[in-house]
Write a structure and sequence with these properties.
- The chain is an alpha/beta fold and about 1050 residues long.
- The chain is about 50% helix and about 15% strand.
- Strands 15-16-12-17-20-11-21 form a 7-stranded mixed sheet.
- Helix 6 packs across helix 8.
- Strand 23 and strand 24 form a beta hairpin.
- The chain is globular and about 130 Å long.
- The chain is built from 35 helices and 27 strands.
- The longest helix has about 55 residues.
Length: about 1050
Amino acid sequence: MQNSYTVINASAGSGKTYALVQRLLMICLRYPNQQQSIRNILALTFTNKAANEMKERILSWLGDFTSENYADNVDLKNIQSAFENEGIKITIDELHFRSKKLLDYVLHNYSTLNIGTIDRFNSRLVRSFSYELGLAKNFNLEIDAEPFLIEAVDKMLDQIGENDSISHSFMDYVDYSLENNERINLNKNLYDSAKEFVKDIHYEHLKNNKSFDDSKYEDIKNTLRKEIVFNKKRSLEIATQSIELFKSKNIDIEDFAQGKNGIGAFFTKILDFYNKKRPGFPFPTTQEESVVNNYRKGAATKSKHKETEIFEILDQLLENRMQLILLFIETQKKEKILSALLPLKVNKDIQDELKKIEEENDLVLLSKFNILINENLKNEPSAFIYEKVGSQFQHYFFDEFQDTSELQWQNFVPLRDHSVSTENTSFTLVGDPKQSIYRFRGGESKLMLDIINKKEISPKEAELLILKDNWRSAKNIVQFNNELYQFHAKELEEEHQNIFGIDAEQSPKSKSEGRVKVNLIENLSKEDFYNDVSERMQKDIQECLDNGFTFSDITILCRGNFDIFSYSQKLGNLKVNYKDEETNIKTISDKGLTLELSDTLQAVIHFLRWETNPKNKPFLIMFMFYLNRLGRITMPDFSLNMKEILAIDSHEEILEFVETKYSLKLKQDNFPKFNLYNFVEYYINEFAVENKETDFLLNFLEMLFNFTQNAGASSKEFLKYWDEEASKHSIQASENIDAIQIMTIHKAKGLEFPVVFIPLENKNSDSQFNNWFDTDADEALKSVNINQFNKNLEVYDPEIEKFNKINSYKNLVDRLCLQYVATTRPVEQLFFYLQKANKTSNNLEILEFLQSKNTENLDEFDLYETNPETLKKYTKHKTTSYKTKNIQTLNNQHEKSTSIKIATPSKTYQERNEKVRTGIFVHELLSKINTKKDIEKVLECYTLEGLITVEERAKIHQNLKGIITTYSEFFDEKWEVINEKNIMTSTNNESRVYRPDRILKSDEGYIIVDFKTGEESQKNKKQIQTYKTVLESLGLKVLKTQLIYL
């Protein structure tokens, strides 16, 4: 095998993971007895989820390749075809045999499967080089930098008044904030600044500014301030001199062409601007050339008699005007640099404090790993790195390469160069520059673009492979995306044209036609937009439900968390007809579902407040309000009903009245208040409505349980904790909940949904950015991090024009990438909700494309022809073969059978297992019973866990007792019992796992017992005979085998 260097451009839905796994397995199946080669493969992803998906896919494929019907397996046939395309002929039977050996090797050596995140690999590198990096041998790795950054900020602020440098910085910050009328939130602003500057994207610039210290800060700050003052003073002088010049010639402002908009008025406006009598610098409202041409007309029509005098001084006035503009631009640059100085200075102080915290605690922040490697290891020979890491990798797979940061890639280049320069190696990069949506945290798609466009420096040129088929979306959705991004590509620079254009064009593999529908919304206020969109969504949701879709088939993709919250609230108040009844639209989201949104929990919290302070009747009112809204009680006229309650003076009497009238038992003596968990759980039980808000209650109880582990936890402390933190806790909702998902586009990356709704306000943020601007002024300060310059400055300063345009273009590409991720998520139907175009030219690019399709100027329309049949749900629900199993009690064979597992609090609310009434459930219980004496203990454990009720327990007890009495010899105390233990054997390099239900061991030998449901069968007899053969092959004497039918 020759060495290969490949970059795979994998558009959305093109089967990227499939291609990765296929190439990875082909390395191991290429030659006989090459299963060990899997340990020489390193596959890096960006999330644990992606890494686990790849591992699962490998094991799943190998499982299928080694099954009885391997000859019909499409994936195995595809691997065979791929080998044939390379000129290698391998029979299906041979691939099947090699797959068996590979699966056997992987199962026995799972830790050698080097598939993980890039952060995990970096951690491995740093630990291997801890000595060279000057780290403690057993340093603590911290993934979350937030608490340490907060501590560093606090420690720095503690030095105000003691440390002169930090005190001066603090006063500068206050002065700057007051000058700019900004609210001062010192801790938050300093923390946000520190959090930003730890990102990889800033590393090189901060490194170049490393000599920027306290003394340099003071020097540069004072120099800039003097220059700014001088420029403003000089501008006032020039403006005053200009006015005096034309006044001395007996020329008034109105005598110039354009009058009050003429060149004379320009100088008076300058005076007003610098004397703070007008808000902005008087830039022209039309193009500069046109303005100057108008100025050069000389005199106004009514003042033609002064034309000679005006022309005498006009060139001088025009020169003065340009000098004032350039002075203003120079001042603007200096003011921006000055405003950026303080964050840099303060960040240096915070980083110094953070370094002390790291050293004191022997910890390393994950965010620092890339920097540590870059500063210490990137110039080390690759052989030395391999030696320290302990693995010689020959094959590399780099997933989601478009999200790699410059720093991460620099650290990896030595290993890439070694790989592409060595025989029998491969280096594969997989990604999609169109899905590069993490530039704000360092992801740099330019790395992949340079490789694709043959611009990178490498020992070997990468071979480009483009995956052109789309296996995800319906035909019309694929066609829409092809047309949309071809349209966008025309306006892009050369390096992006092919990426969004011809390379992005896909062929649909779906047989479904699909739908793309557009809703155009009036350009009104933000609140009106949310309301109008929600009403249009309600109509489309109803149509989807009528066509066979469920709530959970629909996903709404938003730009930000506020959108998620708004649509969650608005849609939750709207109703649709679903499953033959009118119901509120159910939505679910990570950010939208916080504990405080639960009516049940709000009722509990307000009740606890009232219990703590019975005289505070507003808490009582809110408590009853939430229970009424929840539907736990019925108060037809809330105000009238509450007056009735509030008329009662005694707290005890109110409790009795509420119990009598509303069947709410608020007074309870079962659990004293000092047992906070059980005390609160009682009211959860009392207030909860069946099948309502279950996810909220489960999450709340888990959180309450954790809180009560602290000694002396009281109601007052818990209420304080609720206000400060717990109420905002986002809940982890059940995956199988039937509700419309609402999430950010970033969160949706890598996922797919049957139906997608995309609401978009008509605004772009091309001019909103922060980036590094070269100062060209001082060795100690080579660049500063600033926001955009006023667009009016661009025509007068090429440097500003370049800075603004480069960053505006990056924002445009970012927006198109985010849009691409959104429009490629749907499988069957895609709905847009777009604000109409405004009169300015600053509209979303997609609006222009859609308007070209909207020939009849409609407010809602389908882009492609539909009919009632094509609108119906086409795909079945996807189910994964990997399901989370219930956690079982794993008893060691020598463990005493009296052990009882303590139930976690949330088990009370878990749905009762359907297996309770089946023989399968009895089978499960028998695996935990050694003798007749264990029946009670095992059933008690299940009852405590809330898995069975007292009534069910009695029925199951009779069932178990009957089985154990009938087959008493297998439940005798003389046996040592081994329940449901795996037996792994390996014959001819082929592994098999066997799991008898019950093995009884004595001095004489072994008895094998297997429990079965259903009718007697030869298959079951054959299976237990196999167990016997396996045990005998291990040199064990089998006395007897017994099948017990339940």
